Amino acid sequence: MDTLSISSLCFDKDQFMKVGMDKAINNLSIPLGQLREEVLSVKSVMEDAEKAVQHKLLARSKIREKKACLQRLININKSVEKMEVILGMRGLQSAEIIENDDGEIELTGQQIERVASEFNQLQYYVTQSKGLPLVEKIRPRIAAITVTLQHSLERMFKESLQTNNVDMLRQCLRTYATIDKMRDAEALFRKVSVAPYMAEVISERFIQMNPQGLKGMFNKVMEFIPMHCGLIREVTSPLFSSGSEKVVGGYNFMVNAVWPEIVSSLESRVASIFASGNPDTFHQKYLISMEFVDKFERECGSQSSVKRLRAHPSYNTFMSKWSLPVYFQIRFQEIAGSVETALMNPFNTATGNNGFKLSVFDTIWNALQMCWKDQVYITPLAHRFWKLTLQIILRCTTWISEINEKPTNTENQSLSSDGDKATDDKSPPVTMAQMIFLIGDVDKLYEKLPSMFTKCIQVKLSSICKDTSFLTESFEEARSKLIELQDSFCSFIVKQVCGLCSAHLKSANDIPRLYRRTNREVNMSAVVLVTCFP
What we know:
- The protein is mainly α.
- Helix content is 71%, strand content 3%.
- The protein contains 21 helices and 4 strands.
- Strands 1-2 form a two-stranded antiparallel ribbon. A two-stranded antiparallel ribbon has the order 3-4.
């Protein structure tokens, strides 16, 4: 009974709470719905207000843009009128304006600088107002101002160079920098100073008339720098500035004016110096030209200037004019050709003073030395001469192996520029004396190679490769192949000598047979075997 009473009470309580909650929720639904409508109404009003504000802000932004555009147009018109007044182009000439004998207006340095400053602002305004009708209408007047300003700057630049007026030149270059026409100043210097000088110096006639030839011409070209670039460098380079005045930065007359004109003159007036038909002449001219380039780089004054010079298109043009692959191909034919010619008759007696008995080894040694001679070697071709050196050694090794395989009839193989081999005619049989000379010459070549590598090859390659250990390893590997077959040759000679001796000793075995069971008298004279030995 007690359990039933408690269960019924709990059920009634839950029912009561559920009914109460439903009633409370129903009572709140109406106010909540009204609140939702009010919130949506307020949101709609706020969105409308926001749109109105955005519209007004956009309108104000357009008005500001139009005002700014209008102000720029006003500034353009004022700048143009102001410059025209300064330049005397509107009939209201200033008392400071002077006309020369040709009727052209001569401006003072300050006037030019004022016009340049105003012109720089004008350029900014014109860029910002591009495409507007007023700007297009006023462009002819701007073009006239530009021409007048350029003529005034050119006149001022030339006068400063002629009179060596440092202050005038500094002001002129500063004005060029103000209107962002620095390259125009460099081009003007190239035209008025560099080009006339190079036209007189760089020519075939000058090379022929000068006792030093091409070297004398380049020395004369280098004289242009102290004679005509001193004032320029004093104004534009801190390394050459002598006064307390601040240098005008952004210019590099050596790289952008002097060097391009030199290269252009060399290409058009003395193009014959680049001809590679005669390798000796080409080598000489190339070294003289590279020496001139080194001197010019030292005159640049800084590493950054040298880097800009080497990155200049005219520098790359000058370097590409030298046909180094063609030069190497000619040298390759000379060097490798001499080796192949010697291998056609390898056992001729050597006529050189290198200590070899056979002409082929004398030729191989001369070919190896020729690769690294100062009159032949060129640094940019170091990798090719190194490859040719190893090819010659390996070619000799191949020929020696052919001698070992067919001692009486060797097959010669010819070098190709890629290290390939081709079959040649068979050589005559090899004599014992020639084989002995071969062994001796191989040993001598093996002993002489380390000295040549240390004194010639390593010295030249160390300038472009700091770590030469891998070169030493590859050289020693090629060198060691020369003597791999020495033991085989020695064994062959021992067998041949033993065979020759056996032919004479055979008669000694016949002596007992001659006197066995016979009544012959004892021979008191020497037998034939004894007479064979001295």
